[in-house]
Amino acid sequence: MGLDNLNKIVVFSDTHFGVIHDPTEDEETNVVDLINLLDLIETEIKPKEIILLGDIFDLWRVGFADAWDNASDIQFFERLSKYVENNKDRDVELIYVIGNHDHFLKEISFGMDSLERYRDIINGKKPEKIFKGLINEIGNLNLTHELKNVKFYYPHYKREIDGLGTIYFDHGHYPERAERFMKVFLAKVYKYVPTIPIFSSIFHRRPIKIKKDADSEEIRNDLESNFSSLYSLIYYTKFDDVVRAGRDFIWRIKKARWLIFSAIIGFILPSLPSLITLYSSGIPEWLHSLEPIRILKIGVPITALVYSLPKISGILLSNVVTNTVSNKRGNTIKKVMHEITEKDISMERKNYTYLNLIEELGNDKKKINHYIFAHTHVAGKIRDSKTNLNIYNCGGWVKEPHERKCTNSFIIIDPESPESEKIKIYRIDKREKIECKFDGNGKCDMACKKT
User: Fold this and answer.
1) Which residues partner with 409 through β-bridges?
2) Residues contacting residue 5 through CB under 8 Å, at least 6 positions apart
3) SS3 (DSSP) at 439
4) Number of C-beta neighbours around residue 9 at 10 A
5) Which of the chain's ends, N or C, has fewer CB atoms near its CB within 10 Å?
6) C-alpha span between 286 and 279 (Å, rounded)
7) If you average pLDDT over every residue of the chain, what do you get?
8) Based on C-alpha coordinates, what's the Rg of the chain?
9) How many of the other CB atoms lie within 10 Å of CB of 291?
10) What is the SS3 assignment for 210?
11) Does position 155 have pLDDT exceeding 60, yes or no?
């Protein structure tokens, strides 16, 4: 393919570097195919722009040092940075749009950008004024060579391209169900709490008026403040680690010892009446009172229940901890589309969708023609007939317990392509890029087989 088109853009996300260092997870980054993608970028695709669309590091599960080591194992940033250096004459750019699992980079970036102003704090002279963890992270970031060519963006990145219109890129964690619930809950609090007698004197018996003319920046700041508090809880308290450790304390011994323990519990409980008889009436009476069939009927279900408790708790706790702030993981693009184009995300403005927000946010209310996001790890594309918005998900690069179609996927935007479709999704298969085909619902069709 060579240099027949110098203006291509490659988009990919969700490498989750570092997750392999979490002993309670069986996920890992698919480094083999990721290396193959880097090879293709350097030798075949040769894009003018590379966009990393969030969750490149998984800083929810591990510290930055482990996550960075995982990326360094395949020289991820070294190779991309070198590619930028070698193509300076083409003004090649490497864009990093921060996601939810690497949201901590936003704080690190703030600290690095403020070194002059906060030099005393960064040096540890006044550590009480800033999180100690942030000081350590910044102090250990001797990454000037590898990251010097990276341009960080948050929460979004926009491009206007001739022939394509406006493309909006973000990681995709903003239009979440939990966020809308919070908005509805706060709206009810503002409306009814001031009317409760105990509070009425404070609010002079008048409900709090919600600002109806809030602009897009105010609404975005509301979204960001809610997310930041949740993410900080995960980063600084290691709440996620605590929950996972508690869940897996039992789950890791399930195979033999936990099965034996479950059987003991399962069969002792229905045997209790007989055991009581043993102590009160002697062994002969105890043998006479044994009911093997009844004990078996009751003991087997109890054993199965006790044995399955770790798995059940794992599912429940994972949903509570992870899905509370990331509930779109694993969803197809069809399911996510309504979150973007139909659901109300603001209590200040009625019928205000995420699409309304991204069109207003620093865009002079220009129409968004294409929305590209990630977050769910499931590649897909679909067109919303009501808004004429083309929606794309670039997928992810994490091996998962169950096989998903269109994994190890990425997007190529080719503005100068002679084809009518200039934004396509591909996947890596045996060092080759295979175009993904999708049905009308945005699902991967025929598992992205070669055409």
Assistant:
1) 427
2) 414, 416, 417
3) coil
4) 23
5) C
6) 8
7) 77
8) 27
9) 13
10) coil
11) yes
